[in-house]
Amino acid sequence: MILKTLEQFQKALPTAVGIENFSDVEPYIQSAEIWIKSQVLGKDLYDLVNAENFADEDLLRLCRSVIGNQAFWEAIPFLDLVLTNNGFAVISAQNKVPASKERVDRLREQCLVRRDSETELLIYFLEAHTDYHDEWKGSPAYSVMTDCLIRTATELQQYGNWEGTRRDFLKLRPKLIHETMIRLEPVFSKDYLEELLEKQRDADVTAGDRKVITLLKYALGCLVNGNTEAAEKIAGDALRYIDAHQADFPTYFASSEYLARATAGYVNIIEDPIFNSIW
Questions:
Q1: pLDDT at 119 over 50
Q2: Can you list the alpha helix ranges (DSSP code H) found in 129-184?
Q3: How distant, in Å, are the alpha carbons of 74, 78, 106 from that of 103?
């Protein structure tokens, strides 16, 4: 396991200082390790970080924080209960007043908030450290995380004037993907948008692609907020940029979507009045 000792657990979760036996939380840590492997790291990177001689303390701290908060969230409802011959009983501690249900609920919620924020930091850490990309970017976990132009809650906050946790973002991902399919693909082509996703995964975007990606992320942010008019204007700006730099976007200009629009007379030149209504 990446989180191997009670000391590491309590360092990640100061509130857990009262836990005396690692065995009390170990089953929940094991579940959290499976969670981070399947949802974030992927098997190859998990195995690398879990190796006995792994020495990147920054990455270890982030992983242990995510694992610890996920595990503690799962463990809290069980830590003060014991099954007796007469049913469940509450474990009492001398000279300690039991916490109210509201306090316990707030603690569990804060564990998830902390887990989400640390997961976002972990993702950005891994994106910035290319020496882990071979193990990370080939995993199904990474493919799922990057099948949308906006990949994290932090990005949605930046491009969509949006507030929420990573959990909230994951609930919105189907909407982002849906808006991409029904709004952006018919205009920019499915092939070109898939190319952009792949270039983002490989950190291989050109300057032109980066300009288009930025505009499309702002357009998706507007769509999430229900501002279709602003989204259309921004998407139109992206299309105008593409039309002005045709040599830089061969996939778009070879697409069936572009050919259909051009054949129908919807050539996106600035002077064309149709240009202002792309949807």
A1: yes
A2: 133-136, 140-145, 153-160, 166-179
A3: 16, 15, 5
